[in-house]
Design brief:
- With 266 residues, the chain is α/β, with parallel strands linked by helices.
- It has one domain (4-264): TIM Barrel.
- Helices cover 35% and strands 14% of the residues.
- Strands 1, 4, 5, 6, 7 and 10 form a six-stranded parallel β-sheet that branches.
- The chain is globular and about 60 Å long.
């Protein structure tokens, strides 16, 4: 399933705490999609196979509120936006008794996406019944704002509306509190973070790369972006290094350092 070097690296992974993976769209078949943030369903299955083979435990973002209960080798699988094509991924996760968090743009629930995505047509989004079913099967539904605006660029009134009304939209559907938020485009600053916290969210994600709890700030959780070209081997190295820069030149430098250090110790 993965190359021998990545396999060896993966065996020692999971020593630096939880990791959060960020997916977006799922396409049918096994062809690498043109949109770099979409991944084929068949490749997504190889990612789940990898996690299960190496004993990784899936958690939701809300689980970070009780760190004492987070198991070893914990990974939070997240999906941004709330595309209808995510449904097959969540069905597979439920079948495997794995969990994930879906951050939805509440203003487009059951509609077509309305924010601009260069080179991509508007997409059909999950509807309220989909979200209820996912929630009932152990998935977490979080907010990705109401309109997918660049929150660092809007005025205070719009910012408040985007974070508080999105929370209310989703809570009205689920009948449960929404505690998790993902900043659109990963963009945040002190003003945005403070507004998200005041709205009642308790954990929030940006798109900075690294281990989930780098900085120990639950309102600035780091994630590893997953791209459509990411094979199981690439994902293994991302998990092991907590980074998205895991190309072979870097791996060779890492191996050389390990060999040099081993010889220098005699």
């Amino acid at each position: 399933m993965i190359d021998p070097i990545s396999n060896k690296i993966m065996q020692g992974a999971g020593q630096h705490g939880p990791v959060v993976l960020m997916y977006h769209s799922i396409t049918t078949g096994n062809t690498t999609p043109q949109w770099p943030w979409a991944i084929s369903f068949e490749r997504f299955l190889t990612h789940l196979d990898l996690l299960q083979k190496f004993g990784w435990n899936t958690i939701c973002m809300r689980d970070f509120l009780q760190p004492e209960n987070i198991p070893p080798r914990a990974v939070a699988i997240t999906f941004d936006d709330g595309y209808l094509d995510n449904l097959v991924a969540f069905e597979e996760l439920a079948r495997r008794k794995m969990s994930a968090t879906c951050f939805v743009v509440s203003g487009d629930i059951g509609e077509r996406s309305r924010w601009p995505e260069p080179g991509r047509e508007p997409q059909t989004m999950l509807n309220a019944q989909h979200l209820k079913t996912m929630h009932d099967n152990g998935m977490e539904i979080g907010s990705h704002s109401r309109s997918h605006f660049h929150l660092t660029e809007v005025d205070d009134e719009t910012l408040h509306s985007e974070v508080i009304h999105s929370k209310g939209d989703i809570e009205d559907i689920l009948g449960q509190p929404v505690v998790s938020f993902a900043y659109p485009y990963g963009q945040e600053n002190e003003r945005v973070v403070n507004m998200v916290r005041e709205a009642g969210y308790q954990v929030a994600c940006n798109t900075s790369t690294g281990w989930a709890l780098t900085g120990n700030d639950l309102m600035r959780m780091r994630r590893l972006t997953v791209y459509g070209k990411d094979s199981a081997s690439i994902l293994a190295r991302k998990l092991a290094f907590g980074d998205i820069d895991v190309d072979w030149p870097r791996m060779l430098r890492y191996i050389c350092r390990r060999v040099t250090n081993r010889f220098s110790r005699g």
